[in-house]
Specification:
Strand content of chain A: 5-15%
Structural class of chain B: alpha+beta
Shape of chain B: elongated
Number of strands of chain A: 10
Number of helices of chain B: 8
Shape of chain A: globular
Oligomer: heterodimer
Largest sheet of chain B: 6 strands, mixed
Radius of gyration of chain A: 31 Å
Chain lengths: ~750, ~260
């Protein structure tokens, strides 16, 4: 039947909305790239472009150290280096910065000057800062000079950054001339014996260029696309709201209750299906084995860490199951929004590498990128396999397994904190080639013991506990018996104690955020339970990890949180990476090609992604979290109370996802595989919860008929009964599976 | 969307699928061709910072000042003045040559956390295909120069130009300062440059990355478009059902299939 055409009014409305959206997007893009002015009317380019220039000066004598062999001794070289340091400090002075500002046409404004950075002078100054007067100068932070010396050679390197290359070059030239004038003036006032006067020798002309030639247009295009996509989503979401709500409700109505388990349902652990057991084994490895530090002497592509061969084995099992098994036991691959977000992110990562291949190859960074891409593909494969294998009723059992394994890891961490013995590395080191981290059991720069557990980073360990915590908290809330509630409460205490034993601020910040999120959805239950158990939890935590809680709390005190090196280092990075961000704003410099050991440790996954996969990749990364949360939301928000068990599990999973989203701002999550593997496992749990449980049916091989069923061999299994039409299955005796 | 459904959709949209495949192959070919001038050659050459009466041959000469001088030279050799001189001697455009030293330079610094101003200069220099690195030895007046270039021949040529380039720059200063012949700093090249090929495997990686990236993005776009259309149709149908239901309720006559909660096909 031919569909009837929409009414003319509706068509006009749609066209009008589309035109308005296009105009809004164009306007937003224009405002990002240009600054409008009314008098005189016009558009002025915004300062998103960076020009850079560099020049070196040699602090020399009239008989040059480069030319005359009598002109230098070790003493003279060191003296020259000290004089060079003095010149650098002079260039930072108010008088010098004002003069340079005037020289380059800033009028009464000074340029911003800093340096040296090779000597790290500021780091050695532990003097308490005294109250100081407000900055007397007007500084234009867009025009910047950095003067550097290394303390060993008499060479001053001048770096400049300005909105144009011309301005940057002018800053360097002005600084050079100013220094020469300053030295000449000093020598006129204090005449030196012949041949001992300092000569400032410029080592060639300034070099440099524009850091980000196309950044303005890239940013304008990005904003245009974002506004368009956001506006279109809003329009689509507003239209047919009732129909959408109805569709969501129908989807929820299709679901069976997890507590009503029919006999013979073939669910893990009461199953002979291999894959759930293999997944349980993988989860066990994830929690108990420092797999990232185990390099097996076998060749499996780019990296031979333990997770790769295990994952390959898992993939082979999965492929065999898809090929051989039929009926309900066969893995069911269903692509949803999470798959789309994950694959789109993978595509952006691949394209970022392909587009910057030339520069990456030039800098010798292709190998690093390939390793990281292989790791990302491992996560994607693991997610696709898990999402096709997990069944709704198994989610609760795997959640319980995760809580139990999390407690084991937390106890191991407490042992490490109290007795300086890493159970995981020591025990696995007896049977497998484990490489212990160099900083294991050492004190870090702010006096914290470095605790690793089975991971490669204390923050990774703290993040693991935060990810398991929501399942334990909701387990305690939903427990059907007192014994179970007590067990889950103890689990919550052990997990928090394990977290604070890592002595990282994140071990309290992230769980705090998780509890707030749980309280947002279930305020009464969560606040009542947490409030009731606060004293018990405090006692457990203090008893298990004495002193650790105080140490973490003291780091979070108002006077400390902003001054700790771990915080100031993070905030200092935001300015330092601006050139990297603007160089390739859309697709970055190549996925994870920003080597922290070579450039800078960022401790921030979002910042790292902005640099390496650009704004597009970062948005897609955030969309992965968004897709996971939006997939779980209808289950959490189910007003009909169709299945509280699904709702609880979905809420716990969302809190776990949120903890990783928060954790991504605190460390580079994707480089430490324990957390991403767990995240994708939890994402698979969410997808499983959205599906109805399969009908009880024993596993059979492809081509075999189910027992008692007539029909030709090879006939497809009967389709799932449409729950909207078929009556819901009769509830069996209620049997708690999670709590 | 199940796998079978995905395959059916792609078959139905075969023209778009074919277009995506063609673009993916084009991207792969483009990536392969664009990497033809990336680094494949490397060379190493060593320079001795010496006096006219060689310190190696003279037992009475203390090498300590020469070791200090080597450190200064290694730093000075990263400057544009010396880089220009080396580029001229090698016959390559000076804009395509960059250098890094023991502490700082336009190329990436060695183990130093770099502020924005210095990082900007490193980024500008990222695309230079000829890269030089100068490192002074700790206890000897020797500077080791490492060269990276698009081909082994180019690397050899640039490595061979390091000594004459630096020497020419120093000679210029000596002439300018009228340094007596006997006091002139003398540079000596310690044997011919060692040349070899490096990192030839990145081409295949970039080709595969371009192909897969475009293919995945393109297929997701097709499937996403189809999925939105299908969802739209379903919502239209559900909306019509709901409207009919509300109308019937308003007239006091709910349709049977809605009253029983049944979904109309």
């Amino acid at each position: 039947m031919k569909a009837s055409a929409p009414p003319r009014g509706s068509r006009w409305r749609r066209s009008g909305a589309a035109v308005a959206l296009l105009l809004a997007a164009a306007l937003a893009a224009l405002l990002v790239g240009f600054r409008p002015s009314l008098a005189p009317p016009g558009l002025h380019p915004r300062g998103v472009t960076l020009g850079a220039a560099r020049e070196q000066l040699l602090v020399d004598s009239s008989s040059s150290v480069l030319a005359d062999e009598r002109a230098i001794t070790q003493y003279q070289s060191e003296l020259g280096a000290q004089i060079a340091l003095g010149y650098v400090l002079y260039l930072r002075s108010h008088a010098a910065t004002e003069t340079i500002g005037r020289e380059i046409g800033l009028g009464a404004k000074s340029i911003q000057a800093s340096g040296p950075f090779t000597l790290l002078l500021d780091r050695t100054n532990y003097a308490r800062e005294l109250p100081s007067l407000p900055e007397p100068r007007t500084v234009n932070p867009d025009y910047r000079l950095l003067a550097d010396v290394n303390g060993a050679t008499p060479v001053v390197t001048l770096y400049a950054q300005a909105p144009t290359f011309r301005a940057a070059r002018a800053i360097v030239a002005a600084a050079r001339e100013l220094l020469k004038d300053h030295v000449s003036a000093q020598e006129r006032e204090h005449p030196q014996p012949n041949g001992t006067a300092v000569v400032i020798r410029a080592l060639g002309p300034p070099t440099g260029g524009v850091v980000d030639p196309g950044a303005r247009w890239d940013l304008m295009g990005l904003v245009f696309g974002l506004v368009l996509a956001f506006g279109a989503s809003l329009i689509l979401a507003r239209s047919r709201r009732r129909a959408r709500a109805r569709a969501t409700q129908l989807q929820i109505d299709r679901l069976d209750r997890l507590d009503d388990e029919p006999p013979g349902s073939d669910e893990w652990p009461h199953t002979r299906r291999v894959l759930p057991w293999a997944l349980a084994g993988f989860i066990g490895m994830m929690f108990l084995v420092p797999f990232d530090s185990i390099n097996l002497p076998i060749h499996v592509g780019v990296n031979g860490t333990l997770d790769r061969p295990v994952l390959i084995a898992l993939a082979m099992f999965w492929a065999a199951s898809v090929a051989v098994v039929s009926g309900a036991a066969r893995p069911r691959v269903r692509f949803g929004r999470v798959h789309v977000a994950v694959l789109a992110f993978l595509a952006a990562c691949l394209l970022s590498v392909a587009l910057n291949g030339h520069a990456l190859s030039n800098l010798g960074e292709v190998e690093l990128t390939v390793k990281k891409l292989a790791l990302l593909i491992s996560y994607v494969v693991f997610f696709c396999i898990t999402a096709s294998v997990l069944r709704p009723r198994e989610v609760a059992r795997f959640a319980a397994l995760m809580v139990a394994l999390g407690c084991v890891v937390a106890l191991g961490t407490i042992v490490e904190y109290r007795w300086h013995y890493n159970v995981f590395y020591e025990l696995w080191g007896k049977v497998l080639p484990v490489t212990k981290p160099e900083e294991l059991d050492t004190i870090d720069s702010i006096g914290r013991l470095t605790i690793y557990g089975p991971t490669l980073q204390p923050l990774e360990l703290a993040a693991m506990f935060s990810m398991v915590l929501p399942f334990a908290i909701l387990g305690a809330i939903d427990a059907a018996t007192k014994r179970r509630r007590m067990l889950y409460t103890i689990a919550v205490g052990i997990l928090i104690a394990g977290g604070v034993a890592t002595a990282r601020k994140s071990s309290l910040v992230v769980p705090g955020a998780v509890i707030l999120l749980l309280a947002f959805y279930r305020p009464r239950d969560v606040l009542r339970t947490v409030g009731r158990l606060a004293v018990v939890l405090f006692v457990i935590v203090h008893f298990l990890s004495p002193g650790a809680l105080g140490s973490v709390v003291s780091q979070l005190e108002p006077g400390h949180i902003n001054s700790a090196l771990t915080t100031t280092d993070r905030t200092a990075r935001y300015d330092a990476v601006t050139p990297d961000l603007l160089r390739h704003p859309l697709l970055g410099r190549g996925y994870e090609s920003y080597d922290p050991h070579k450039y800078r440790i960022l401790d921030n996954q979002y910042l790292d992604l902005l640099i390496t996969v650009g704004a597009i990749g970062t948005i897609l990364y955030i969309l992965i979290f968004g897709a996971m949360i939006s997939a779980a939301r209808p289950l959490i928000r189910d007003r009909s109370g169709h299945d509280p068990r699904r709702s609880s599990l979905a809420l716990a999973a969302v809190a776990t996802v949120a903890s990783v989203a928060i954790g991504s701002a605190l460390f580079d999550v994707l480089s430490f595989p324990h957390v991403p593997y767990m995240l994708f496992f939890v994402a698979a749990m969410i997808l499983a919860l959205r599906e109805p449980s399969p009908a009880p049916e024993a596993a059979r091989l492809t081509g075999a008929r189910p027992l008692g069923e007539a029909g030709p061999p090879g006939a497809a299994a009967p389709p799932d009964p449409d729950p909207a039409i078929e009556p819901a299955p009769e509830p069996a005796e209620r049997e708690p599976v999670f709590a | 969307m199940e796998v079978v459904e995905i395959l059916r959709t792609l078959r139905r949209r075969w023209a778009a699928t074919l277009l995506v495949a063609v673009i993916a192959i084009g991207a792969a070919v483009g990536a392969r061709m664009s990497t033809h001038n990336t680094t494949t050659g490397a060379a190493t050459v060593q320079l001795l910072v010496d006096s006219p009466s060689s310190a190696l041959a003279n037992l009475s000469e203390n090498p300590a000042p020469l070791i200090s001088r080597a450190g200064v030279f290694a730093q000075v050799m990263t400057s544009q003045a010396v880089v220009q001189s080396i580029a001229k001697a090698a016959g390559v455009p000076e804009g395509q040559v960059t250098a890094q030293g023991p502490y700082s330079g336009s190329a990436e610094s060695l183990n130093v956390i770099t502020p924005a101003e210095a990082r900007s200069n490193q980024i500008v220099a990222e695309k230079a295909v000829y890269r030089l690195s100068f490192v002074a030895q700790q206890n000897e007046p020797v500077i080791t120069t490492t060269v990276q270039a698009p081909t082994t021949d180019a690397a050899a040529k640039l490595a061979a130009a390091v000594y004459p380039g630096v020497q020419s720059y120093i000679a210029g200063i000596q002439r300018e300062g009228k340094t007596p012949e006997r006091d002139r700093v003398t540079l000596r090249q310690l044997g011919p440059a060692q040349v070899g090929p490096v990192s030839g495997g990145s081409r295949g990686t970039l080709t595969v990355a371009a192909f897969l990236g475009v293919l995945i993005a393109g297929l997701l776009a097709i499937l996403g478009f189809e999925s939105v259309r299908r969802r739209d149709r379903e919502l239209d149908r559900l909306g019509a059902d709901l409207d009919a239901h509300l109308e019937s309720v308003a007239q006091g006559n709910p349709p049977a299939h809605m009253a029983s909660g049944e979904r109309r096909r």
